[in-house]
Amino acid sequence: MTTPLIAEKLNSRGIKIDWIISDEVDDSLQSDIKYLPVSESSIIKSALNYLVEQGYPAVNIITDEFELTDYQPFADKTNMVIFYGQKKIYTVHPGFSKWKPAGEMIELLSTPKDLEAIGLETIKAGVYKTVADGLFRLRFSNPILFIAESL
Question: What pTM value is reported for the model?
Answer without folding.
Answer: 0.84
